[in-house]
Amino acid sequence: SSNIDNIDYMVDLSNNEKENLSIQGYAKEGIKEQDKHVVGYAHEAGKAIIIVVNKWDLVVKNEKTMSDFTKKIRNEFKFLEYAPIVFVSALEKKRIDTIFEAIDVAYEGFTSHLQTATLNEIINDACLMNEAPDFNGGRLRVYYAHQVGIKPPTFVLFVNNPEFAHFSYLRYLENRIREAFEFRGSPIKFVLRKRK
To answer: Which one, 7, 101, 115, 182, has the greatest CB density within 10 A?
Structure first.
């Protein structure tokens, strides 16, 4: 069967606010709504995330199986495009090293810092290429951006009016940042401030 499934439970290291990594595991019997809620919580809490597909030894594979599983997971968790996906067999101890490689990648993304000049170049280019839509009675203008934190990378956008920011435009800006610097395994957080 090529269905995705929840192992028995998800190993979620983000229960403690001091922990910053959520490792989500799936194998072959279908993702449940509860799984989506737990992963959504880790994402909303700003945790680095990797997705582990376990019991890979039980899956009948061809040259497209891994790609098909990846597409299914991406479809179920559209908000986790940034999370690395690794395929392992814990029982047979196969590909376990890929978990640690993914943790390293996620930690690097989680602790990355952009220079202000580089960040503003990315944001300015994005705004020139695609102007913000009218929303809540006005159009968002981003004057300046600055990274103020890591774990997760947090960016302050100084704008004309935060009320004019539509979530889809913020996602667009996030995607432009990720095109330049992946921040793999890490969510990106925006804080909007009205320029005084």
So the answer is: 7
pLDDT tens string 152-182: 999 999 999 999 999 999 999 999 999 999 8
Separation in Å, CA 58 to CA 29, 54, 99, 156 = 11, 9, 18, 46
- Which long-range contacts (C-beta less than 8 Å, at least 24 apart) are formed by 75-80? 76/4, 76/31, 76/36, 77/36, 77/39, 77/51, 79/40, 79/43, 80/39, 80/43, 80/49, 80/51
pLDDT for residue 176: 97
Cα atoms in the Cβ-side hemisphere of radius 13 Å centred on 79: 14
| Residue 3: per-residue pLDDT | 39
- Model pTM? 0.82
| Concatenated DSSP letters of 68-82 | HHHHHHHHHTGGGTT
Q: Are strands 48-53 and 85-87 parallel, antiparallel or unpaired?
A: parallel
Mean pLDDT over 56-67 rounds to 84
DSSP calls for 168-195: HHHHHHHHHHHHHS--TT---EEEEEE-
Instruction: Please tell me the distance from the alpha carbon of residue 55 to that of residue 90, in angstroms, as a whole number.
Output: 7
